[in-house]
Design brief:
457 residues; 36% helix; alpha/beta; 17 strands; 9-stranded mixed beta sheet; single chain; 4-stranded parallel beta sheet
């Protein structure tokens, strides 16, 4: 018997394939969890076992958005340290973050995932690196929330072993030992990582950053990841202070330091990469090291404008990231499409980035960065059925003739339908798998609880 089919017709389609193929009015046929066909005009006649037909008039279909950098736990500390740069922001918030527990992280993951999924994200990623002693199974709490919501997920098991007594920023009780961090990371890979084509869960090795992690943890983490065949993630070149720190401590800039510890390669992606010179970009291009561009967070913390157009021109893989919601309070990736275009034009002029490049960053670029470009990120036959149907016939987009420009440059578009693995996760701008109101109540309660424990309330 044929796999159950979903047919979407009469819609504009931006496939984001290698040729940027688009259809002014076309169709997508989904069979089971795979894209079966995409093309102009109506779907083929005589299809068997069609369980649903969607009239996409007034809509644009794109690949699902792919988030490449986030910190879910920060959902509970939104709106704090409003006028701080990165280092002052970290100093102010680490004492609070050091008091999170499993219950809090589960609620924060639900809030973060819900906001992203409702806004068109089909593959989420989180970099969790704060593991206070006795706080419970924090990574497991995130994985459980993603599984319940039905979102494809890359969980980057982070770590820190440089506490305040060793010159780091986090309190000592919020960091791990080198041996403990490596053992817990390996256990996470062995327990959770699924390398299959249609996997819903990947694990990555992710020491936090040069100023919170020892060189031994960087080196050993890279060796662990490659022994296990998983990807590597960390923060890199986010601020001028970080560059100064690397020169003072290691006698070299961040990119050279990363290369010296085994942290450049086509299995690595780094968050931010704001302060990159020509030599840094060339090194990333040569090694195919990926970048998670987080325009809203970089602006919120006044970190600077990443040289994304230069990275793309050099062949560096670049995706988009929400970053933690304590530095991007909206928590929505589709707003990053617009902000990536606008902020990069501020830095590089009116042709620095266009609407289709921005959409590619948020879809195929993200899939590249996460090592899943053969599975997701574009609408092509044989790929996984992670698709979003954006409503563009309302007042917010009614006079923009170009649907891709409407999505990227216009107001945030409602999501009529979002499919992950061929299953609906959003219908008419509401999540189908979880209770949004219940999540809002739970996250509010846990945020208040954290504030009390941290002495903020």
């Amino acid at each position: 018997m044929a796999a159950p089919r979903i047919v979407i017709e009469n819609c504009a389609i931006a496939t984001v394939d290698a040729n940027d193929t688009e259809y002014a009015s076309g169709h997508v046929v989904i069979a089971g969890n795979r894209i079966e066909s995409v093309g102009a005009g109506a779907a083929p006649q005589g299809l068997e076992n069609v369980v649903r037909r969607v009239d996409g008039t007034g809509h644009l279909v794109t690949p699902g958005l792919v988030n490449t950098h986030h910190h879910f736990y920060q959902w509970l500390t939104r709106g704090l340290a409003q006028d701080s740069n990165l280092f002052n922001w970290l100093v102010e918030l680490y004492p609070t973050w050091a008091r999170i527990d499993e219950e809090m992280v589960y609620a924060a993951a639900q809030g973060s995932l819900a906001m992203m999924a409702r806004g068109g994200v089909t593959t989420a990623m989180d970099h969790h690196y704060v593991f206070p002693k006795g706080s419970g199974d924090l990574l497991g709490a995130e994985i459980r929330a993603a599984r319940e919501m039905g979102v494809r997920f890359t969980a980057a098991r982070g770590s820190m072993d440089r506490g305040a007594s060793d010159g780091g920023l986090p309190p000592d009780f919020a960091v791990e030992t080198l041996e403990g961090a490596l053992a817990a990371t390996e256990e996470a890979i062995d327990t959770h990582h699924d390398a299959s084509f249609d996997s819903m869960l990947h694990i990555a090795v992710a020491p936090c950053s040069p100023f919170s992690v020892s060189t031994d943890l960087m080196r050993e983490g890279a060796l662990l990841a490659r022994r296990k065949g998983v990807r590597l993630h960390t923060h890199g070149s986010e601020t001028v202070e970080e560059e100064k720190f690397c020169h003072e401590l290691f006698g070299m800039g961040p990119t050279d330091y990363f290369e010296s510890t085994g942290w450049l390669g086509d299995d690595v992606w780094m968050a931010h990469c704001v302060h990159m010179n020509d030599s840094d970009i060339a090194a990333f291009a040569r090694t195919k090291t990926g970048v998670a561009h987080c325009p809203s967070s970089n602006a919120r913390l006044a970190a600077g404008i990443a040289r994304v157009p230069d990275m793309l021109a050099s062949g560096v893989p670049v995706g988009l990231g929400v970053d933690g919601t304590a530095s991007n309070e909206s928590g929505e990736l589709h707003t990053e499409l617009r902000n990536a275009l606008l902020i990069n034009r501020l830095g590089g002029g009116e042709r620095a980035l266009n609407a289709r490049q921005a959409l590619r960053l948020g879809t195929y670029g993200g899939a590249q960065v996460l090592g899943r470009a053969d599975q997701i990120g574009s609408i092509e036959a044989g790929k996984l059925a992670d698709l979003v149907l954006w409503k563009l016939d309302g007042i917010g987009h009614s006079s923009i003739a170009d649907p891709v420009a409407a999505l990227v440059m216009g107001a945030a578009a409602p999501v009529t339908l979002s499919l992950i693995n061929g299953k609906p996760v959003v219908e008419n701008n509401h999540l189908t798998t979880v209770d949004e109101d219940a999540i809002a109540r739970l996250t509010r309660v846990q945020a208040q609880r954290l504030a009390r424990i941290a002495g903020l309330a």
